[in-house]
Design goal:
Length: about 110
């Protein structure tokens, strides 16, 4: 059984940075695409960024230039580096490696 776990969330002020981490028990991320999603209060879950199994990365328009997805050297952790955070980034952030999901990490950005 693979379990994903996000960490690194918190409460920050607008303009600050945070780095989320996603770790997996039972396997590494090597050879698998890994995606970050988020769900803001009262909204549907939305795609944030993906690291494909070949190492390419893509992100949604609203975070381009501010968020970066990357993998640790040992493929045991996937990161979401978030900079210039604004209140619209407030959400629960989820790590996904199909079919597995983490429980989520709360990110709250105050104005």
């Amino acid at each position: 059984q693979v379990q994903l776990l996000e960490s690194g969330g918190g409460l920050v002020q607008a303009g600050a940075s945070l780095r989320l981490s996603c770790s997996a028990s039972g396997r590494t991320f090597s050879g698998y695409p890994v995606t970050w999603y988020r769900r803001a209060p009262g909204k549907e879950r939305e795609f944030v960024a993906v690291s494909t199994k070949s190492g390419q990365t893509y992100s949604t328009n609203s975070v381009q230039g501010r968020f970066t997805i990357s993998r640790g050297d040992a493929q045991e952790t996937v990161y979401l580096e978030m900079t210039s955070l604004n209140p619209e980034d407030t959400a629960i952030y989820y790590c996904n490696m199909d079919p597995y999901w983490g429980p989520g990490a709360q990110v709250t950005v105050s104005s």
